[in-house]
Amino acid sequence: MLLHNWGSLFIAECSISFAVHIIVYAGAIMVLFLFTLMFINLNKELEPHKTNLVKVAATIVAGTLLLVMVSTVTNTGNVLPSQVSQNDVGTVAVLGKKLYSDYVLPFELTSILLLAAMVGAVMIGKKNTD
Amino acid sequence: MNSILSVVPIEYYLGLSVILFTIGVMGVLFRRNAIIVFMCIELMLNAVNLLLTAFSTLHGEAGGQVMVFFIMAVAAAEVAVGLAILVMIYNNLRTVDIKEMNKLKW
């Protein structure tokens, strides 16, 4: 979980992205996780563990994936662009203009998605009365 | 260019997000606690977010960061629905062990 936060803090180069990340993750997702942890009784004795065979297989798979990604990254040529068109992409003004001009339809669809998720969570979460 | 990328080169961002993504995959494969699996999925999404933001700054293109917003919205929706499902499963089965959730298998 610490790494989670480091990852978010590293986005500090883009002010708006950073702020939204902090708000969404610290304000919404962490709280959701904490609530669920309170609902669910977890203790050390009941902690399920996988068998050693599965653990070895998981390590091999994850290691292979890491290897593939690292080799892809190292084998890629120069990724630096010849010239940067715009230097202030992380600011509220630039992102807001982009969001409300080119990406208006996905933006509105996102609001519908969030509404659907909210209704769905309430429907799933409520007690079955029948 | 006078952004943070002249201080911290893009390779470090690449390395960090590759490591974060692998930790996420590792956690999904390793653990049987459904909450930990959820957290690891979030970790993978965040690794991709980090990389999108870094490259969007590198190329001076705002589209990448718009994509980060959409990924965050999808992640929030996924967590809300997923944790609701998890609480219901716990109410019914009294466990969050993913090995017990095999009713749809076969």
Oligomer: heterodimer
Secondary-structure-based class of chain B equals mainly alpha
The percent of residues in helical segments of chain A reads: 55-70%
How are helices and strands ordered from N to C of chain B? HHH
Structural summary, described in words:
The complex is a heterodimer of chains A (130) and B (106). Chain A has helices spanning 2-9, 15-39, 52-75, 92-101, 104-125. By secondary structure, chain A is mainly alpha-helical. Among the domains of chain A are: 1-44; 91-130. With 106 residues, chain B is an all-alpha fold. Chain B has a single domain (4-93), classed as Helix Hairpins (Orthogonal Bundle). Chain B has three helices and no strands. Chain B has helices at 10-30, 34-59, 63-93. In chain B, helix 1 (10-30) packs antiparallel against helix 2 (34-59). The longest helix of chain B has 31 residues, at 63-93. The radius of gyration of chain B is 17 Å and the shape is elongated.
